Fold these 2 entries.
Entry 1:
Amino acid sequence: MAAGAADWVFMRVPAEARVDLDAIGDNIGLLRERAGGAAVMAMVKAEAYGHGLVEAARAALAGGASWLGVAKLAEALRLRDAGITVRTLVCVGVPGEPYEDAVARDIDLTVGAGWLLDEVVRAAERAGRPARIHLKADTGMSRGGVRGREWEALVDAALKAEATGQVRVVGVMSHFACADEPGHPSIAAQIDAFTEMVGYAEKAGARFEVRHMANSAATLTLPEARFDLVRPGIAVYGLTPVPSVGAFGLRPAMTLVAAAALVKRVPAGSGVSY
């Protein structure tokens, strides 16, 4: 084709995203191997990173995930409406959510503040059954969760609510700030802080089913951070969280496909617009 000439192709189909559900299952299998003895919670928040909430959740469970994680309560309720009854954790709590529905439908809730514990306790009283909660420790990311005296107060309040039958304190969790930067000094500091905060809670009487902190990067690169449960997100869908280390054998699950509208050859050094 001569420089500057163009081939025109009329588009016959719209652009589409094709999702390989088998790839999601295969990635879960790989993550299970890397997690050692830890269970795998597949994060399916934000419409499963755009891959389809319900479909991706089913693929992850078929691949061996034993938990699902979402950001919002509405996502967990959609999973229940679809007939998915596996343990599901809502990771973000905001005021005024229908927590009574979460308790009634056997959904685990993250509690990282005293006001949220109060809302969940009231919801459990209305539902007539205890709420399952995971206490969130702020180990240095300074986002969700509490630390210091606030952590001590939250633990003590949660254990009192457990003693009166309003909640079951089943988990403790935190989140990494820089696990995707191997060797970053915050990684060891956060693990140490988490271990110390878990220790405080256990000495106070907490009996956790699961301790969890590892995102995709930590699942793949930090054995010491896997604890009882890992929470991979982007790796479930086949993208490496640490490109500097490698692809880890993950297989991308999404392919974007469209017919070409224009293919053009231009001389070397030409500018190319968006």
Note: The chain has nine helices and twelve strands.
Entry 2:
Amino acid sequence: MPVDHYENFPVASWLLPARLRRPVEAIYRFARSADDIADEGDAPPAERLAGLAAYHAALDRIERGEMPDDAVFGPLATAVRDHAIPLAP
């Protein structure tokens, strides 16, 4: 996974069991991109809030079982679907 930041995730991810690398990468990509919306660049606050609201809406769609096909939410939805822990009734 290309990372434009000075993060150590690409190296540290090899410490994970192979079966967890893709799901953790999807979660990391989501978190990193949400963080970038919140505090990178020079977008005004209203634009940042709108971007975060769009992320919230995408998470709601994943929760409903919808499968997005974009680079951030598609892999995240797959990770959630394939690795979800059922909640107790």
Note: Helices lie at 9-12, 18-39, 45-63, 73-83.
